Amino acid sequence: MPEIRSVITHQLLKQRLAHVERRIREAETRFGRSPGCVQLLPVSKTRPVADIVQLASAGYRAFGESYLQEALDKQQALTGLSLAWHFIGPIQSNKTRPIARYFDWVHSVDREKIARRLSAQRPRDLLPLNVCLQVNISGEAAKSGTGLDALPLLAAGVNALPGLRLRGLMAIPAWEDDFERQRAAFHCLREAFDQLNADGLALDTLSMGMSGDLEAAIAEGATLVRVGSDIFGARK
After folding, report:
1. Phi/psi zone of residue 36: left (φ > 0), alpha (ψ -120 to 50 degrees), beta?
2. What is the predicted pLDDT for the residue at 132?
3. How far apart are CA 178 and CA 160, in angstroms?
4. How many CA atoms lie within 13 A of 137 on its CB side?
5. Backbone phi, then psi, for 14, in 5-degree steps?
6. Cα(92)–Cα(108) distance, rounded to whole angstroms?
7. How many CB atoms lie within 10 A of CB 229?
8. Per DSSP, which regions of 33-151 are E strands?
9. Which residue ranges in the chain fall short of pLDDT 70?
10. What is the pLDDT of residue 234?
């Protein structure tokens, strides 16, 4: 597990959070989105519990984590806060049971084997696990995610699993510093999202956009942006 770094000062965290929130609201206005339609998911991986407590005190109740054991330790320490936990990292088959039990959302389902395990291992006294399918829209060999060509079959299979609720799609495109190229990548995911809905699925979540490209993602219909470094500072 990566080393958990020192706590950010309250004032700096407050300033950075306000800046990110302002970027989101300004992008909603600029691109004709409904005010407040984009959710900010703070990505708290590698951050200490005290940082999460600070954001919880500011009204945030959902947090994104990528490292399973680190996330489980945080959940144990924060049981009194009634937080929602989103798993956003790659999923290994031998880690599906605790993910199915202890998370509210999973953004990184990219193959039916993993989906079937999550469904079977989701405790029946809990609501179905909310899932997004991760799509490798840039075709990067080193990156997780299903291809666009395999997406319809995967979506249909996942949608039929009783322990899961298929909510939408997630992607982490190859980095581009040009806004229009960023937007073009997110447009591909939005088209796939729209096509799945046209085919009869009831998807409501486009998890796309991070610190460096959230405006382009919002322009193309993101409903949730995952932001870590612009809130907590760059990881070292």
Report:
1. left
2. 98
3. 39
4. 23
5. -60, -40
6. 11
7. 13
8. 39-42, 62-65, 84-87, 105-109, 129-134
9. 1-7, 235-236
10. 76
pLDDT given at position 5: 54
Q: Element (H or E) spanning 39, and its range?
A: strand 39-42
Element (H, E) at 166: strand 164-170
In contact, 209 and 222? CB cutoff 8 Å: yes
Judge contact between 199 and 154, C-beta under 8 A: no
Q: Residue 119 carries which side chain, given as an amino acid letter?
A: S
User: Using an 8 Å Cβ cutoff, are 228 and 43 in contact?
Assistant: yes
Specify the pLDDT at position 139: 78
Query: What are residue 73's DSSP bridge partners?
Result: none
For the purposes of burial, counting CB atoms within 10 Å of the CB of 98, is it exposed (0-12), middle (13-18) or buried (19 or more)? middle
pTM of the predicted structure, to 2 decimals = 0.94
Counting DSSP H helices and E strands in the chain, the numbers are 9, 8
What the block records as the tokens of 218 is 């919002």
Give the whole-angstrom CA distance, residue 215 versus residue 219: 6
Structural domain spans, the chain:
10-231
pLDDT tens column, 148-186: 999 999 999 999 999 999 999 999 999 999 999 999 999
Q: For domain 10-231, give the CATH number.
A: 3.20.20.10
**Nearest residue to 184 via CA among 193, 194, 174, 169:** 174
d(CA 178, CA 162): 41
3-state secondary structure of 223: coil
Q: Which amino acid is at 24?
A: I
State the number of CA atoms in the 13 A half-sphere of 16 facing the CB. 19
